[in-house]
Design brief:
Blueprint: H1 3-16, E1 33-37, E2 40-43, H2 44-58, H3 64-80, H4 82-94, H5 96-100, H6 104-124, H7 129-140, H8 145-154, E3 174-186, E4 192-204, E5 209-220, E6 223-238, E7 241-246, E8 249-255, E9 263-267, E10 270-281, E11 284-290, E12 294-299
Antiparallel strand pairs: 1-2, 3-4, 3-12, 4-5, 5-6, 6-7, 6-8, 7-10, 8-9, 10-11, 11-12
Length: 301
């Protein structure tokens, strides 16, 4: 994660936790090794403890899909820089014992102080995959309202920001997600190298502001490539046609086997149009967008 977010994270907790950080001993035995690199290892227990912290902070529980996605993010980070990743992971884990031993009122005080400072910085880190993932978990726990408010505020930079009309998007308000998981690749020693999968979300606000986030993980042999894209813009729904005027997008490519070719770049502004329909599948309402292909998104609660 971005260093400025990590620094803020530590400052907030050090100020608000009585006694500060405690040492966490390494777990051995049957603990599953996810990645081994640079003489260091990332174990499943490391990821589980970080998830435990963020579940406490966001007052929610990760779904099985979210746990798998976060494991992939941390594995990719660990491969890029094992020493720095381990240090950051241990810092997060180190606060758990103190949090768990605090009184309910103290936990609430620390959680509020942490979120008041940490969440706004996550919203600014649009080119950081882990930041956007954690933000998605936080917003989903609140029905997407915070994300919707952010989309509304950010949309003031769009070319038609003076128009506060929803443009008929009232039926779209909220967060919609589509995801797919695939096979997992393991090294000869049993360490997880990564999995194939993707997740795409649209967040619509009442004033027509919209945000898109897409994460795709591709395994080729022992190589793990992660693609991350974010866009913000303004949507208009007229009849069954949805038109979105996107601002310049952020696109990131991270390949574990070709680090010299990794990059983050801005893509030009563009306009997209979809035909829209709603349907119910297994009792769940879905938003289907039809462009070159049809993709149906489910509400992300």
């Amino acid at each position: 994660m971005m260093s400025k977010i990590k620094i803020l994270f530590l400052l907030v907790l050090c100020v608000n936790l009585i006694g500060g950080m405690m040492n966490v001993s390494a777990q051995t035995g049957g603990d599953k090794v996810l990645v081994a690199a640079g003489g260091k290892t990332l174990n499943q227990s490391d990821v589980d403890q970080m998830i435990e912290f963020y579940e406490w902070a966001s007052q929610t529980s990760f779904t099985s899909e979210q746990r798998a996605q976060y494991s992939q993010l941390k594995a990719a980070e660990f491969r890029r820089n094992p020493a720095e990743a381990k240090k950051g992971n241990d810092e997060v884990k180190g606060f758990l014992p103190q949090i768990n031993s605090s009184s309910p009122s103290e936990k609430e005080r620390v959680r509020n102080a942490f979120n008041d400072n940490f969440i706004p910085n996550l919203r600014k880190a649009t080119d950081d995959a882990e930041a956007q993932f954690l933000l998605g978990v936080y917003d989903a726990a609140r029905g997407g309202n915070n994300g919707g408010e952010t989309a509304a505020n950010d949309a003031t930079d769009a070319s038609d920001s003076g128009n506060s009309s929803s443009g008929g998007v009232s039926d779209l308000i909220g967060k919609w997600a589509w995801g797919r998981s695939g096979s997992t690749t393991y090294a000869a020693g049993g360490a997880m190298l990564g999995s194939n999968g993707s997740r795409h979300t649209y967040q619509f606000a009442a004033n027509g502001a919209v945000e898109y986030t897409g994460i795709m993980n591709v395994m080729t042999g022992g190589c793990n490539m992660q693609i991350f894209k974010t866009m913000k813009g303004r949507a208009n729904l007229s009849g069954g046609t949805l038109t979105i005027n996107w601002q310049p997008a952020t696109f990131t490519r991270d390949d574990s086997c070709s680090p010299s070719k990794n990059y983050t770049k801005k893509l030009p502004a563009e306009t997209e149009s979809f035909q829209v329909k709603f349907k119910t599948d297994y009792g769940q309402k879905q938003l289907c967008l039809m462009g070159k292909d049809e993709t149906c998104y489910s509400r992300s609660e």
